[in-house]
Amino acid sequence: MIIPKAFISYSHDTLEHKKWALELATRLRNNGIDAILDQFELQPGADLPHFMETHLASSDKIIMICTNKYVEKANKGQGGVGYEKMIITSSLMKNIDEIKIIPIIRQNGTTEVPTFLKSKLYINFSKADDFEFSYDELVRTIHNSPLFVKPPIGNNPFIPIVKEKMEEDNKLLDTVLIAILNGQGIDSFEYSSSIIQTLNISPSFFKIAMGKLIDKGLAIWVIAFSRVASTEKGLIYAYDNNLIK
């Protein structure tokens, strides 16, 4: 299992805010994310610039907790927040993809982010009542597990379904014919059970496919001996359509 690593960047506004950041990091770790927080990692005398540079570069995500004071420090280049901003916007920016930085808002009545993050979408943690929804979105983003998954492309409504079905049928029949030819090799036949096992298809589907190949004159089936073979027409068809070399 790959464990994503998330560096948490925040400003030491108040003891309450430091506690909030600590609780967020702890909960993220409990949800399978290697949350990196200075309160976990640093002891008195530790090298703060080295800590920032190392983990900013190696993390999969950078969570920026944007309080009003954090935004002010980032824009003015002050303190640890300013140093982190300098690292991200200079040499490391070349190696940071567009979705590595996740701004999260924790403000009262505003949704400000540092100037260099103005173009990025954020997650708003300002309302305590909406915390669980915001937290779920954050965890899903880090784990790359979106709540809504893009559905596959459907059929063109202006193309007749019958035409698409015929094209799909031809592909399936080609697959069965190739299996017959490959199994048959230079021999005169192949066993139907071998084709069913090779393609991992049901006997019923095999019967339907063989019926259509026989109707087209591409294959024969000696049911009594459970033997199938390509006709000469089937061999030429496969060669002309690049189904075999």
From TrEMBL:
<dbReference type="InterPro" id="IPR013568">
    <property type="entry name" value="SEFIR_dom"/>
</dbReference>
<feature type="domain" description="TIR">
    <location>
        <begin position="2"/>
        <end position="129"/>
    </location>
</feature>
<dbReference type="InterPro" id="IPR035897">
    <property type="entry name" value="Toll_tir_struct_dom_sf"/>
</dbReference>
<dbReference type="Pfam" id="PF13676">
    <property type="entry name" value="TIR_2"/>
</dbReference>
<keyword id="KW-0675">Receptor</keyword>
<protein>
    <submittedName>
        <fullName>Toll/interleukin-1 receptor domain-containing protein</fullName>
    </submittedName>
</protein>
<feature type="domain" description="SEFIR">
    <location>
        <begin position="3"/>
        <end position="134"/>
    </location>
</feature>
<dbReference type="InterPro" id="IPR000157">
    <property type="entry name" value="TIR_dom"/>
</dbReference>
